[in-house]
From TrEMBL:
PANTHER family according to UniProt: MAGNESIUM-CHELATASE SUBUNIT CHLD, MOXR FAMILY PROTEIN
Protein name: AAA family ATPase
Species annotation: Alcaligenes aquatilis
Domain AAA+ ATPase, first and last residues per copy: 59-205
Pfam families with a match to the protein in the record: AAA_5, CobS_N
GO molecular function, one term: ATP hydrolysis activity
């Protein structure tokens, strides 16, 4: 690994780096290694979530970010790491990640013409011995065997026992651990997040800080979309984005009262704005970005919401795009 510095040598101002009113300074590395995420200049930080994440980085707190899909949870952690030059690795706890992937396993290799068995470290022992932020993405999708492996490193001293090796690993002082989840322990009550599990509360209890990142106020969401798709930065473009975010909010309201079984996430709004620049047609872009994902029985309601925000019909010929 090309991380030459093992400890953060300086501090950065939260005010200047994250645009959040605060006198705080947080530790940062001075060199960027290959594991530091690429900086996204257009990223806009949510003050509360950012302060939670910074407490995690600065004071070694375990931080869990919960929220609906596409609200920016995973990228938020990466973008904080990018500004601190903190190496960062993201592990998606999908159904295929196994205990062996996390802990490590014996592998057979050829050395000097002979077959030798060698223990190959999994991602947890590898990451925890370095100044590294480990992001456990989709935490609520992890299989129970995987979750019990993780439980060990959530303990306060975070030691990790490699049973097959009779070794106990101590975490590097700048090893950090974060997670993102759509549901919060009780399983999915919305029907949106198939494949998630209810979480063991003894495990949930081990997270020191839990923050929620859901939908932002319209003006902030508009600024995010505009930052992502700068070609929309015209009078007409801004007007469109306002209407797009308004429509997204209507789908969220309709979802919460049970009229729609799906909703537009901030990610969908960004994709729609991007697709507008590809199709040069916001209706066609809407149809392919969201409308076609809706159940047929709900498409009339979505057409009505579109009409309300844009003052024009989402004409039937578009619906077959
Ligand atoms: N505050 C923001 N500023 C700029 N871009 C953002 C912001 N929030 C989200 N985005 C963009 O929205 C998209 C979705 O973000 P991300 O993948 O982090 O969401 P998520 O909450 O992790 O979703 P999921 O629950 O589906 O994993 C990304 O392309 C990201 O760059
Ligand atoms: Mg994510």
């Amino acid at each position: 690994m090309s991380q030459k510095t093992e400890i953060p040598e300086h501090t950065v101002s939260v005010n200047t780096e994250f645009g959040i009113k605060s006198a705080l300074h947080v530790p940062a590395f001075s060199e960027r290694s290959e594991y530091v995420p690429a900086l996204d200049e257009a990223y806009r930080f949510d003050p509360e979530v950012t302060l939670s994440l910074l407490a995690g980085f600065a004071h070694n707190r375990r931080v869990l970010i919960q929220g609906r899909h596409g609200t920016g949870k995973s990228t938020h952690i990466e973008q904080v790491a990018a500004r601190l030059n903190w190496p960062c690795i993201r592990v998606n706890l999908d159904g295929h990640i196994s205990r062996l992937d996390l802990v490590g396993k014996d592998t057979i290799t050829i050395q000097d013409g002979l077959q030798v068995t060698r223990f190959q470290e999994g991602v947890i022992p590898w990451a925890m011995q370095r100044p590294m932020a480990l992001i456990l993405d989709e935490y609520d999708a992890g299989r129970p065997d995987v979750m019990f492996v993780i439980q060990q490193i959530l303990e306060q001293d975070g030691r990790f026992t490699l049973l097959d090796q009779n070794r106990v690993l101590h975490p590097h002082p700048y090893f950090r651990i974060f997670a993102t989840t759509n549901t919060l322990g009780l399983g999915d009550q919305t029907g949106l997040y198939r494949g998630t599990h209810s979480l063991n509360h003894a495990q949930l209890d081990r997270w020191n800080i839990v923050s929620t990142l859901n939908y932002l106020p319209a003006a902030q969401e508009e600024a995010i979309v505009l930052g992502r798709v700068p070609s929309k930065n015209t009078e007409q473009g801004k007007h469109d984005i306002q209407a797009m975010v308004a429509l997204a909010n209507l789908t969220r309201q309709a979802f919460s009262v049970g009229d729609l079984s799906t909703l537009m996430s901030p990610r969908t709004v960004i994709t729609w704005a991007e697709n507008c620049t590809l199709f040069h047609d916001k209706r066609r872009a809407f149809v392919v970005s969201f409308f076609n994902k809706c159940d047929e029985s709900e498409q009339n309601l979505v057409k009505e919401l579109y009409q309300r925000c844009f003052n024009e019909e989402l004409v039937p010929s578009d619906a077959t795009a």
